[in-house]
Design brief:
- The protein is of the alpha/beta class and 200 residues long.
- The protein has one domain (6-43, 92-193): Rossmann fold.
- It contains eight helices and five strands; from the N terminus they run H-H-H-E-H-E-H-E-H-E-H-E-H.
- A three-stranded parallel beta sheet has the order 3-4-5. Strands 1-2 form a two-stranded parallel ribbon.
Length: 200
């Protein structure tokens, strides 16, 4: 999401993702106020790269980006400065962080264990990019019986048409993968559960 990070190293305009930060922060604060468990996820690999598949390492450009030195440390490597969560959305103490080696938040992680232990069946999903990490996570969750509510303005893509198409896929055929809402509607609903008049 920031200059000199992974997305930027692939030639993308990261400013297109930054528009999701303010709505995501709004949802984050609303969820915290409502006492909803907030779980943060981030894609990254072990420093020794033993969890990095060869086809992902070289991608389509035949040049390895992941693990290469960059302005924010080794690209997409756990523990490096560029692997951290953006400051505006930084976790509060006690909020779990799930480090994932792939696009989906369930692949190679203990996310399902956390959700089961907490009795959670509905997920509010925010993040980037809409058509990759968000969509993969929603599909994984759907197959596991979770109801996903994707917050459309708290998600973003480098490609606007991909963002729009991914959201349409989620709600197609009566909500085949889940539901879609926006940050205003969601935070208003959260405030109503607390008996607070919404100020939008």
């Amino acid at each position: 999401m920031e200059p000199n990070g992974f997305g930027h190293s692939l030639g993308n305009d990261v400013s297109k993702l930054q528009k999701a930060i303010a709505p995501c922060k709004k949802v984050l604060e609303g969820a915290r106020d409502a006492g909803i468990l907030v779980i943060h996820t981030r894609e990254g690999h072990r420093p020794d790269l033993t969890d990095l598949h060869p086809h992902k390492a070289v991608r389509g450009n035949k040049k390895q980006v992941i693990g290469a030195p960059g302005p924010k440390g080794r690209v997409l490597i756990r523990g490096e400065p560029g692997h951290d969560i953006v400051s505006a959305l930084y976790p509060n103490e006690g909020e779990p962080i799930v480090d994932k080696p792939g696009k989906g938040s369930f692949y190679g992680t203990d996310l399902e264990v956390i959700l089961a232990a907490q009795g959670i069946r509905t997920l509010l999903v925010c993040g980037v990019t809409t058509e990759v990490c968000v969509h993969t996570t929603v599909r994984e969750a759907n197959d596991r019986g979770y109801h996903c509510i994707v917050v459309k303005d708290a998600c973003a893509s480098f490609f606007e048409d991909f963002h729009d198409a991914a959201l349409r896929m989620i709600v197609a055929q009566g909500g085949i993968f889940g539901s879609v809402t926006d940050s205003d509607k969601l935070t208003a609903a959260l405030q109503q559960t607390l008996g607070v008049s919404p100020t939008l």
